[in-house]
Structure formats: structure tokens, C-alpha cells
Design brief:
single chain; 10 helices; mainly alpha; 245 residues; globular
């Protein structure tokens, strides 16, 4: 089950985001503690994201300002801080917040385009854009649900980036967030204490990430969006039921 969830998560992250919903839910359903499951999801999905980033490497369209290097640096630093917060704060606080974080991410998935159109922020300076990227990356390191879509919506609202051509940059920035978070989780969390689950999810995510990056050019965008949103809604409902039963 976890292997198949990894394939689905890697493919979803490559084509539109939302893979962490599937991976996290599979690990929790398998009996893993939510904080450990979240950390394991980040570590396991990193190679899949990196694989997708490799496929997209020649198609990256950066922001006019700031540079892609500066944006990636903000992603790396923010991911590290978010991972630190996940480990330092009480696990009970994450478990209580998780259904609401899922709900928030689901709203972004469902209404991201409308919110982006409604919240046109003009053209803020590079420092403001980097600050926004840094805050989103903290969220990505702490939880990560739909963070790539949030980044894409943020760039669309604040820069001249065409959202239809922003997917390669989204994949690379999510990989940057996961990179530092995964390193921290490997040494400071309980990720390595359940190697079979980690290996199964990681292997599936690599396969799904590679296949998804190639299939995205052939699958209708509306079908992909419907698939991701359906998964997000289902996982959010399940976690609310689990939290309040």
C-alpha cells in the first residue's frame, strides 16, 4: 500500500502538487505517528521531486526579479526552519493542527486560481518576493501540503511569471524546501527507525516522479486538477473524522 502511495504521490507532485496528501495518509493508516509520518513523507518524496526537477531542468523559466538562485536560497533556509519547528514544538500540537492544515491546503487547491486573480498585488520588489518565498518555505518544511501550488499562486500574483509555464520552477523550489528539511529529519527525527516504510515510499515516489514529469505533457490539465483535488478533499475529511471520533 505504501509503495503504491509513493508512486501516486511522486506522480501528483510532478504534475500539479498534492502528493503529500496521499503519502502522509498512507503512513498514518499504517500506524505511524503523525509527526514521524510527516517527516518520513518529506524524506521519501525528496528523490521523487529531484527526479522531476532533473526532467524539467531545461524548461525552467525563472522570475524576472529576484534571481532563481536567490529564490532557491530562501526556499532552502525556510525549509530548514520549518523542519526545526516540527521537531521542537510538541507533537500534540501538530496532531491537533494537521486536519486544519489539510483543510487550508485543500482550499488553496480548490480556489488558488480565483484567489490569485482576486489578490493581484501589483509588482512588489525583490525583497518582498523573497520574504514571501521564505515564509511559504517555512510552511513547506513544517507541513508542506500544497506548498508548491501556494508558491505558484504567489508568483503569479506578484510577478510576470506565466502560471502555465511555472511548473518546472515549482518542482525545483519544492525540492529545495524538502532538501534541507529531509537532512534535518534524517538526523533528528525517527525516520530511520522504520526503514521498510521509508524505502517503499521512496522507491514509489522516484518511479512516480519520473513518470509523472513525462506524462504531464499528455494528460489534460482539468483531469489532473480534478484528481489532485479529489484526493485532497478525501484525505481532509478522513483526518477530521479521525481527530474528532
Amino acid at each position: 500500500m505504501i509503495l503504491l502511495a509513493g508512486v501516486a504521490a511522486g506522480a501528483l507532485n510532478a504534475v500539479g502538487g498534492g502528493g503529500s496528501f496521499v503519502a502522509l495518509s498512507a503512513l498514518v493508516a499504517g500506524g505511524m505517528a503523525p509527526v514521524t509520518a510527516n517527516a518520513t513523507t518529506t524524506v521519501a518524496l525528496l528523490p521523487g521531486n529531484a527526479t522531476s526537477a532533473w526532467v524539467y531542468r531545461r524548461e525552467v523559466e525563472g522570475l524576472a526579479q529576484p534571481s532563481t538562485t536567490a529564490v532557491t536560497t530562501a526556499s532552502v533556509l525556510g525549509g530548514a526552519i520549518g523542519a526545526g519547528l516540527l521537531l521542537l514544538l510538541p507533537s500534540a500540537s501538530f496532531e491537533a493542527a494537521m486536519p486544519w492544515l489539510l483543510a487550508f491546503a485543500t482550499v488553496v487547491l480548490a480556489f488558488g486560481k480565483r484567489l490569485t486573480a482576486a489578490l493581484r498585488l501589483g509588482r512588489p520588489g525583490p525583497v518582498a518576493i523573497l520574504a514571501g518565498q521564505f515564509l511559504l518555505s517555512i510552511y513547506g518544511g513544517y507541513f508542506g501540503g500544497a506548498v508548491g501550488l501556494m508558491m505558484l499562486a504567489f508568483w503569479t500574483a506578484t510577478t510576470s511569471l506565466d502560471p502555465a509555464r511555472g511548473n518546472p520552477l515549482r518542482v525545483i523550489q519544492v525540492a529545495a524546501v524538502y532538501l534541507t528539511a529531509a537532512v534535518i529529519f534524517l538526523f533528528a527525527a525517527d525516520v530511520l527507525q522504520q526503514p521498510l516504510e521509508l524505502t517503499a515510499l521512496l522507491a514509489g515516489a522516484v518511479v512516480g516522479g519520473y513518470a509523472g514529469a513525462h506524462l504531464v505533457r499528455r494528460i489534460p490539465a482539468k483531469l489532473l486538477r480534478t484528481l489532485v483535488l479529489t484526493t485532497a478533499v478525501a484525505m481532509t475529511v478522513l483526518f477530521f473524522v479521525r481527530a474528532f471520533r
